[in-house]
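To start, one record:
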Amino acid sequence: MKLFWNLIGWAGVGVVLIGCRHAPEGGVVEVPVTFAAARQVLETNCVHCHGDYRLKGMPPIDTTRHLAKLIGPGNWIVPGQPEKSRFFQVVIFPDEIPGAMPPTGHGIGKAEVEVLRQWIVAGAPMPEGRNERLRPMGEAPRSR
């Protein structure tokens, strides 16, 4: 068992398990995802291009204030409705569809996409009263 944890690490397990738990009958029950989980996905996959050096027309998501402006009915992120959220649609588009994100190679994994979906289902909760900076983490998706 120790070898298992050394191979995958606690972080990997957190991403896989963050959105579910086992129901008493053996099924899986969805658990709302917090902003902290969504933030990790955004900083790893999105802020590189939607931050300080974004192209004209790209929505900024480099601060919690900018991201919060994209949340609301008829906006990029429709709380509770990932299927109506353009923000979510572009990460599930196949690579050959114009507008798929990231634009070169689909760098967002299934577990990370699920975190974003569940965050939106939970109402896209944001930290209150703060203007936190989101910082790019790791390699830019285009370099993968």
Remarks:
- Residues 32-143 form one domain.
- The two ends are 31 Å apart (CA to CA).
- The chain has one domain: 32-143.
- The CA atoms of residues 5 and 11 lie 10 Å apart.
